[in-house]
Here is the input.
Amino acid sequence: MASLTVRQLDDKLKKQLRLRAARNGRSVEDEVRTILRGAAADEDAFVPPRTEAQRGRASEADAAHILLIIGGGIAAYKSLDLIRRLRERGIAVRVVMTAAAQKFITPLSVGAITGEHPFLDLFDAHSEFDVGHIRLAREPSLIVVAPATADLMAKLAHGLADDLASAVLLATDKTILLAPAMNPNMWSNRATQRNIALLAAEHVALVGPNQGEMAESGEAGVGRMAEPLEIVAAVQARLAPDSRALAGVRMLVTSGPTHEPIDPVRYIANRSSGKQGHAIAEAAVLAGAAVTLISGPVTIPDPHGATVIKVESARDMLAAVEAALPADVAVFAAAVADWRTTTNSREKIKKSGKQAPELVLVENPDILSTVAHRKSKRPKLVIGFAAETENVVEHAKRKLARKACDWILANDVSPETGIMGGDSNTIHLVTANKVEHWPPQSKTEVASVLVSRIAAALGEQK
Ligand SMILES: Cc1cc2nc3c(=O)[nH]c(=O)nc-3n(C[C@H](O)[C@H](O)[C@H](O)COP(=O)(O)O)c2cc1C
Here is the structure.
């Protein structure tokens, strides 16, 4: 029997293995054994070798895998964004499209986003050689139908199975989450409402439909498909094993940069995208916390389920934070500008042609330190971030002591790390008595690890 040493693998592969192992809570050696066992089992089952794209998706699929059925409605175009949002969160997506769905969006665009051909046909000789529709029905953790047409819901309610989508829905033993989308008259029609009642009795879950304008001009009412992020939240709530870990906890999160005005059109800013803070707010909502997110100017969408307060400057942010207290936990992830200009001109500063204007800077209030030093209404857990470019851990230890906060999440934001504005992060958690080095992982994963640590710490305090 050949032996294999992890040390001999190339660095990229070792890094991928370490990440995968950390995600699954296994040692690297155990992870390798798991992969080998899986590959051997694949061989036994005579499964054809995976394509490059499928192999790339394997680690995602190990984490959580949903089947998305796209029905034939105008809202089908939103399912492309839905797939992207799910994949950003590490949720692998396999897709079935109905024949009608293919009139609205193409299998090509779906395939390009998922990295795998969508499944289209019940009588496909290629995927049905081993009764593929039953595998499609049984393998995912959850089945999502978005948009769920009146027709698909009627078929499911009455047990029809004359195409791939309806056959899979009938054959599954997994939870089905429907995101209905249709004209308000179709939605309120008694036949549709009867079908919804039948499906509810079968424990089929619904997200939406929402009230709003329809694609048809001049039409409005209930029938608009839930927004992709709402559907993502509903998916995550069903996939998360510990969705009540922060139930009853009031959590305050700051996120994004601040803008410090120079005049009505110019400002001082930084490169923060808000991705980390928003991911923390979203993870806390999913864990059942009542979350207030105070965000500087960002271009990313608001996390679903949080109360979002939008501010511009550091002073606005401090005022919003103080108004949002009391809270049980405060996470200060915003990249607050350290300085603002002494002048905030009411008029646009003009080029005089002589000398450039002098900008005099003055220090902004320190929000983390102000809240951590509070005598009253100090949250039980005050958590700050330290964005450093050198001596990351040493600076973070000093910051922890100086600011009197409980934890610091330190990260190296040197340009070569790509952390500022990027999708992944490498965190060093500094507390009063220890330093932990977390592996590089997505900002969403950092958020969910942090939320479980907060839940554990609050549990210990009780
Ligand atoms: C332009 C157009 C838009 C449509 N939009 C919807 C819709 O939003 N919701 C819906 O339930 N049906 C809609 N339909 C009707 C469905 O496409 C039709 O009922 C089809 O049979 C559904 O097939 P499926 O359930 O297999 O996807 C639309 C049809 C057309 C032509």
